[in-house]
Design goal:
Helix content is 35%, strand content 24%. The protein is an alpha/beta fold. The protein binds 2-deoxy-2-amino glucitol-6-phosphate.
């Protein structure tokens, strides 16, 4: 999704802006641009990669000590140079993340005032609006504050002015924005990874904050002008963690990082003999213990993690659980219960729908809230009573992999803690479960060793246009996740069904052109699943079965079986997703798609 970098420093900031944009490329974008002040306002824009923007900057020898830059993911208006940011009005340039919901009404007013629009974006409205305010308010900071009171929607924005080259004004409402403090100047960005090149000292802005940065200082105020202080936080993000190293793609790197990511996430239970509510925050015993039911809110892959957790929470902790897609829940008339534990799951912690669903649940009086999130400084984490930070490390590939397995590890811990608080976990079972959890990283490593076989299977998939994924019980969400991975990076149409549903419709799709992938560990539903697979074979469908050591299935005509090294009981979902990630990755490689930045998608979905 869109990214912002801004800088005012005692140096040519163009290389910093470009490097910052490169670090934000993983979020997904379709055009890029920058503007610098250097005896005038100089703007460069390009449709396509940041590398093309860098080439333009090189060719035109663009330089300046103050500048703003942007990667755009189209929402209003097609991906094109005229829609790329920065947008200009008079001597003013603006970059913006988010969506201005009342842009049409504002556009009409501004057009009536004589402003000419040169793009189809909602952002251009902001440029003209600030310019208009500057006709009566001389100070840029004050003019931006006045302008944003007219805006409805979500934004992170940065504004600079030709006649005032020593400062940049930024503001945030709903979309993330942080400031960077360095010896040679001050910076702003939508993501800390863009600024690690110049500083680790970051200031995270709150919703409703405006700030002004200059070479020598910064000031932050609320929209009404009240000055506020925000803490300076030393970012713990490792600069190496966002480097590709010896891997070909971030997705590949992140799949293979899973044993470490899981070990880091489970570090707190490394030597423990029991699971403690404190893993989820200081008040966790009261917040979790008093809950009568669980409501999980999330999107995409994080929603799939929630679906797996429902099986665990109901079977092991005996607590009723529902799992809702955040974008649906936020607009649905539901029946609230104050004693519901609301669990939000998100890799980024900035997903607009998940944040809005949480706010909606809170507005209905449900204040027992927990975030399971991979980014400690994210908006989501700041808005819940409890939190569990997965320690997957930065996830750059658009397709979520290590975030998912670490979310599952966190959700299993949550299940054990709630089970214990509800008197459903005896000491012997608790010890056994902890031993099983500690072994997960090694078990995942053994699954990764199956890559050569999965790679061979990928060759058989690349010519297909459709695929069907089947699973039962807690492996049905794993089938959903496998289908999502395949469609998002290889563009092969894929659907997932609980295997028992096959004969109620999807079986009509099965013929020899339809590969059917089955998630088939040796659980209580395996025999039922085997019958469902017979239904597929009888219609000529080719089966690809991910079984495990105990599944007692082997290759036969039209049936390919890959056995995972061990059967893993309740935690088998964590293992069985890994070969599906590898399969999608290798199919995408064979098809030659852009693995880390699939078309039309963004990493962090910060707009509705
Ligand atoms: C997964 O591969 C996706 N790209 C996507 O579904 C993602 O999981 C979803 O957008 C939610 O993101 P979040 O976990 O950062 O909230």
């Amino acid at each position: 999704m869109c990214g912002i970098v801004a800088a005012v420093a005692d140096r040519n900031v163009v290389p910093v802006l470009l490097e910052g944009l490169r670090k934000l490329e993983y979020r997904g974008y379709d055009s890029a641009g920058l503007a610098v002040l250097n005896g005038g306002l100089h703007r460069l824009r390009s449709v396509g990669r940041v590398a093309e923007l860098a080439a333009q900057a090189e060719e035109k020898k663009t330089s300046g000590e103050a500048g703003i830059a942007h990667t755009r993911w189209a929402t209003h208006g097609a991906p094109s140079e005229r829609n790329a940011h920065p947008h200009i009005s008079g001597g003013l340039a603006v970059v913006h993340n988010g969506i201005i919901e009342n842009h049409e009404a504002l556009r009409q007013q501004l057009q009536a005032d004589g402003y000419l629009f040169t793009s189809d974006t909602d952002t251009e409205v902001i440029a003209h609006l600030v310019e208009k305010k500057l006709r009566t308010i001389t100070d840029l900071f004050d003019a931006v504050r006045a302008a944003i009171t007219d805006l409805q929607g979500a934004y992170a924005l940065a504004v600079m002015r030709e006649s005032d080259p020593t400062r940049i004004v930024v503001a945030r409402e709903g979309s993330p924005l942080l400031l960077g403090i360095a010896e040679d100047g001050h910076y702003a960005a939508s993501d800390a990874s863009a600024l690690l090149q110049v500083t680790r000292n970051m200031v995270y802005l709150e919703n409703g904050d405006c700030a002004e940065i200059s070479r020598s200082g910064l000031r932050i105020s609320r929209v009404d002008g009240t000055l506020v202080e925000r803490p300076v936080i030393e970012s713990q993000l490792s600069a190496d963690a966002v480097e590709l190293g010896t891997y070909s793609h971030y997705m590949q790197k992140e799949i293979f990082e899973q044993p470490d990511a899981l070990a880091n996430t489970l570090e707190m239970v490394g030597a423990a003999r029991s699971v403690q509510p404190g893993l989820f925050g200081a008040d966790a015993a009261e917040v979790l213990g008093g809950a009568r039911q669980v409501l999980i809110l999330a999107c995409g892959t994080s929603w799939h993690a929630g679906l797996v957790a429902r099986y665990w929470l109901e079977a092991i902790a005996g607590i009723p659980c529902s799992v809702e897609i955040a974008s649906e829940y936020r607009y649905r008339q539901s029946v609230p219960d104050a004693d519901t534990l609301v669990v939000t799951i998100s890799q980024s912690g900035e997903t607009a729908d998940t944040l809005a669903a949480l706010q909606h649940a809170k507005s209905l009086g449900m204040l027992r809230t927990l975030a399971i999130c991979n980014v400690p400084e994210s908006s989501l984490v700041r808005e819940t009573a409890l939190r569990f930070i997965t320690r997957a490390g930065p996830e750059i590939g658009v397709a979520s992999t290590k975030a998912f397995t670490t979310q599952l590890a966190a959700l299993y811990l949550l299940t054990l803690v709630i089970a214990k608080l509800r008197g459903k976990l005896d000491a012997e079972t608790e010890t056994r479960e902890l031993i099983a959890l500690r072994h997960v990283p090694a078990a995942v490593q053994r699954v990764l060793d199956l890559e050569p076989e999965i790679k061979a299977w990928a060759q058989l998939f690349s010519a297909k246009h459709h695929a069907l994924f089947l699973g039962r019980g807690r492996h049905y969400p794993i089938a959903l996740e496998g289908a999502l991975k395949l469609k998002e990076i290889s563009y092969i149409h894929a659907e997932a069904y609980p295997a028992g549903e096959l004969k109620h419709g999807p079986l009509a799709l099965v013929d020899k052109e339809m590969p059917v992938i089955a998630v088939a560990p040796n659980d209580t539903l395996l025999e039922k699943l085997k019958s469902n697979l017979q239904e597929v074979r009888a219609r000529g469908g080719e089966l690809f079965v991910f079984a495990d050591a105990d599944s007692e299935m082997s290759d036969s005509e039209g049936v390919h079986v890959l056995r995972l090294p061990e059967h893993y009981g309740a935690l088998s979902a964590l293992l069985h997703v890994v070969p599906l990630q590898l399969l999608s990755y290798h199919v995408a490689l064979v098809k030659g798609t852009d693995v880390d930045k699939p078309r039309n998608l963004a990493k962090s979905v910060t707009v509705e």
